[in-house]
Write a structure and sequence with these properties.
59% strand; eight-stranded antiparallel β-barrel; 12 strands
Length: 246
């Protein structure tokens, strides 16, 4: 397993944690009645551009999130959330790479070509005969820790809409498995895992609906813009959860 983390990312994580700790220490006592914790069920929808054969263009998975937050003023506050989704898998077949001869060879020698013994053969069918079953499976998991200030807008006596924006620290675990008719190593196939760390801008929207004095229902949405291994894409996360207000 390969791991990589840059010093710039580590410094940003440390700065964010120090800022959050300061806010909670200075504001938590005054605004203790507005501090909340919560949990959510999350759908992870990833969409990426492709930079080569076998790239995963995205997929969907389910996961969970836990969060804690507090109000700084009547309208402003800060929200911390950790999300761990399931793996997004995509299987790619590479048998067409060998089968590409089916279109290349006829261009070189169209029609039937006689063998030295006089028997003609159809060049167009050679590609099919050369086709080799080969596949790869890519699996990605995008675990995130987000630090997002928020702005609250009242929708009435029992509901609020909350706009969030901030920074997400992303831990990407990748697993690539090769198998099929081609054997790179003895056994059933080859598998390699990677772990990378990065940071991404994140925005969100929550609707808080009070159920009791201390419990509220919170449907929400998060959108992250990520750059993974040279591929830019989006992580969209609709969620539904509960929050307990202290």
């Amino acid at each position: 397993m390969l791991r990589h983390v840059s010093l710039s990312v580590a410094s940003r994580v440390g700065l964010a944690l120090a800022t959050v700790t300061f806010i909670f220490c200075t504001v938590g006592t005054v605004q203790a009645q507005t501090t909340y914790v919560g949990g959510s069920a999350v759908a992870d929808i990833a969409r990426f551009g492709s930079i080569g054969v076998g790239d995963s263009s995205g997929g969907e998975a389910f996961g969970g999130a836990i969060r804690v937050g507090t109000a700084v003023t009547d309208r402003w506050g800060i929200d911390l959330e950790f999300t761990r989704p399931g793996e997004i898998e995509q299987e790619n077949s590479f048998s067409y790479l060998a089968g590409a001869f089916e279109t290349v060879l006829p261009g070189l020698a169209p029609g039937r070509v006689p063998l030295p013994g006089g028997m003609p053969i159809d060049i167009g069918r050679i590609g099919t005969a050369l086709s080799i079953p080969f596949s790869s499976t890519t699996a990605y998991r995008y675990s995130t820790f987000t630090v997002m200030p928020y702005l609250r807008q009242s929708l009435g006596s029992r509901a609020d809409i909350v706009y969030l924006g901030g920074l997400a620290f992303v831990r990407t675990s990748s697993r690539i498995s090769l198998g099929g008719g081609i054997r790179l190593l003895p056994g059933n196939g080859f598998e390699q895992s990677f772990v990378t760390y990065g940071a991404a801008p994140a925005v969100g929207l929550d609707v808080r609906v009070s159920m009791t004095d201390h419990l509220r229902l919170v449907p929400g949405l998060r959108v992250l813009v990520v750059d993974e291994s040279g591929r830019s894409g989006w992580l969209t996360r609709p969620s539904i959860g509960l929050q307990w207000i202290f």
